[in-house]
Amino acid sequence: MRPIKFRAWNDIDKIMVKWSTLQASPVLFMNILKGKVKHHKLMQFTGLQDKNGVDIYEGDLISLHDNQRGFTKVVFRNAYVGGWLLVRNNNECSLGARRREDLEVIGNIYQNPELLENKS
Question: Which residues contact 82 (CB under 8 A, 6 or more apart)?
Answer without folding.
Answer: 94, 95, 96
